[in-house]
Design brief:
Elements (H helix, E strand, L loop, with lengths): L2 H12 L10 E4 L33 H15 L2 E6 L9 H14 L5 E8 L6 H9 L3 E5 L4 H7 L9 H13 L3 E8 L7 H10 L4 E6 L16 H15 L7 E2 H10 L16 E4 L4 E3 L12 E2 L5 H5 L2 H9 L5 H4 L4 H4 L4 H4 L13 H23 L15
Parallel strand pairs: 1-2, 1-8, 2-3, 3-4, 4-5, 5-6, 6-7
Antiparallel strand pairs: 8-9, 9-10
Bound molecules: iron/sulfur cluster (2 copies).
One iron/sulfur cluster (SF4) binds next to helix 14.
Length: 402
């Protein structure tokens, strides 16, 4: 890099723009990437690019938490959304989350709504946690990959023992204590061919809200790691789940189909993967550092720190805009794709999966085309019945929203 180039990049990193999209929610990592499990497929543990790799016991302090709640509640008034993830966020301890609720009550203003969500492997959940979650209407996401023989193939504790039995205890406890929760099921080569078994298993537990996340991990040469499903396997899985879900579509929520229906109804889908740009949320690391996406907690994408930067400054950083607009680098296939206005080229994490190039086609493109071909028309008909009018035809959007 030339000296001029360095100067420009330093300038650029802290530069801000005029009006840019607000930060509409936070993904907070109170224990950073630290986890009490050792799942074989985990992309977060021991990442090369982890900026905090040399700090094994990192935790968010109460001072950082207070500053976070104080400043973000002011910025996000009248509706504030806090989501906690990891690593494993419950490692921060129950008193940390009790303090959080206290700060939210202290810094909230009249009429302000606050929503809290937490994604957990559930192995630390006990009655005390359940009491907090129920009392303040938290939404929990529990990671569980299916029946025991599937889950315990990759989801281990630090002693390399399966976690299924302990997680099932927590699931039962949450049901008894009336905690609202959904299931996050990671799709690997162990379960992607077993759509029916998974669906029946989760429905048998009384679960009516399920999210399936496919693994997409590759080695340095761009070869698929053994547990990463092929696009065809993922597409077939989604099509099979669609068939199982369709008869009970009014009472069961499958995140992918929910998001697709939202997009077809002209609403902003809940999942960022179907957004036009990557700017709907930011990640807050344990020390207050901010990043634009959970998949890109890397020094080169750091947007600032809440102890020195204001939320409007962070929101207006050119680096945020630069990251957000990566998604608009449409692949030639996307430019002529009939599903472009709902898919928007998928997720940049999957687009640069094998070779780390943002301009690549999403690794799972074939899967999307399979499920869109199967589900768009029935969903459009369903929406017409619900709303009493036709949904707009799929339109080819302009590539850049800016
Ligand atoms: S890179 Fe993917 S996960 Fe990250 S904000 Fe963009 S669409 Fe969402
Ligand atoms: S389905 Fe494939 S080609 Fe079409 S917009 Fe999505 S990623 Fe691009």
């Amino acid at each position: 890099m030339t000296p001029g180039g360095e100067l420009f990049s330093i300038y650029n990193q802290n530069a801000t723009l005029g009006a840019t999209p607000r930060i509409s929610s936070l993904l907070i990592k109170p224990a950073s990437a630290v986890c009490n499990l050792d799942c074989e497929y985990c992309f977060y543990l021991d990442r090369e690019a982890d900026p905090y790799k040399s700090l094994p016991a990192r935790r968010m302090t109460l001072e950082t938490l207070e500053r976070l709640v104080d400043t973000y509640m002011f910025y996000s008034y009248p509706a504030s959304t806090f989501a906690f993830q990891g690593g494993e966020p419950t490692l921060a301890g129950l008193p940390f989350f009790e303090k959080l609720v206290g700060f939210q009550q202290q810094y909230g203003r009249n009429g302000q709504s606050v929503s809290n969500a937490l994604q957990t492997n559930a192995v630390l959940i006990d009655k005390n946690w359940c009491d907090l979650f129920r009392e303040y209407n938290w939404l929990l996401g529990v990671s569980l990959d299916g029946p025991e023989e599937i889950n315990d193939l990759y989801r281990f504790n630090k002693d390399h023992r399966g976690t299924w039995k302990r997680v099932m205890q927590s699931v039962e406890m949450m049901k008894v204590n009336k905690v609202e929760f959904n299931i996050l099921c990671v799709l690997s080569t162990a379960n992607v061919g077993r759509a029916k078994d998974l669906y029946k298993f989760f429905r048998g537990l009384g679960i009516d809200n399920i999210q399936f996340i496919p693994l997409a991990e590759f080695d340095g040469e761009g070869n698929r790691l053994p547990y990463t499903p092929t696009p065809e396997q993922y597409g077939t899985f989604l099509c099979e789940v669609f068939e199982l879900w369709w008869p009970e579509r009014r009472k069961v929520r499958i995140r992918f189909f929910d998001n697709l229906a939202e997009a077809l109804a002209g609403q902003k889908p809940g999942s960022c993967t179907m957004h036009e740009t990557c700017d709907s949320y930011v990640v807050v690391e344990y020390n207050g550092d901010i990043y634009p996406c959970d998949f890109f907690v890397e020094s080169s994408w750091k947007l600032g720190n809440i102890t020195v930067d204001s939320w409007p400054e962070i929101a207006r950083r050119t680096r945020r805009l630069s990251f957000a607009s990566k998604k608009t680098l449409a692949h030639p296939d996307c430019q002529v794709c009939e599903y472009q206005s709902i898919c928007h080229g998928g997720c940049p994490k999957f687009r640069h999966g094998p070779y780390r190039k943002f301009e690549d086609l999403d690794y799972f493109c074939q899967a999307y085309k399979m499920i869109y071909a199967r589900s768009v028309e029935p969903l459009r008909a369903e929406l017409k019945q619900m709303f009493g009018h036709e949904m707009p035809e799929l339109a080819m959007h302009s590539i850049s929203p800016y």
